[in-house]
């Protein structure tokens, strides 16, 4: 409405808007949590695909802690309960060609630059070859997926609201 000295604006329904925004917050938390579950499953897939394989124990020991809301954050994780999982992740490659000894049996030239034959036979995943830093590389390889999944969660929240 125009007045002599300028414009006068009046907003009706502020309480309803606040109520709508509070409902949106709950919906957004739900959508983000679902998005985190989806992303965590993808990251777990990548971690298993990139983990070194000798006996297969490391791959099969990977567990996903389903994300859940804790206060103002969403908590979840991927990991292994095997004692050597961290060592396999962090240890630098052993250069050269080395034999493998397992239960008194010698496998000549089994390790090539720190990777065993079974690891070398695994297919690549999103352009990454299996080996060390398997968890870190799975996360880096899925960064764009994370951004898209979170954007989709926000879009789904906004689409579910009528203005």
TrEMBL record:
Domain of life: Bacteria
InterPro entries: HK97-gp10_tail (IPR010064)
Protein name: HK97 gp10 family phage protein
Source taxonomy: Bacteria, Bacillati, Bacillota, Bacilli, Bacillales
């Amino acid at each position: 409405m125009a007045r002599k000295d300028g414009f006068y604006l009046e907003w009706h329904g502020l309480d309803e808007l606040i109520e709508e925004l509070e409902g949106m917050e709950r919906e957004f938390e739900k959508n983000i949590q679902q998005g985190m579950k989806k992303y965590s499953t993808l990251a777990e897939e990548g971690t298993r695909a990139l983990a070194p394989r000798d006996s297969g124990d490391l791959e099969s020991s990977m567990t996903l802690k389903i994300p859940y809301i804790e206060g103002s954050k969403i908590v979840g994780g991927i990991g292994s309960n095997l004692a050597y999982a961290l060592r396999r992740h962090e240890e630098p490659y052993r250069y050269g060609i080395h034999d493998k000894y397992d239960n008194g049996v010698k496998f000549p030239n089994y390790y090539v630059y720190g990777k065993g034959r079974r690891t070398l036979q695994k297919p690549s995943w999103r352009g990454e070859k299996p080996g060390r830093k398997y968890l870190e590389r799975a996360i880096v390889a899925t960064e764009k997926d994370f951004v898209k999944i979170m954007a989709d969660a926000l879009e789904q929240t906004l689409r579910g609201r009528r203005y």
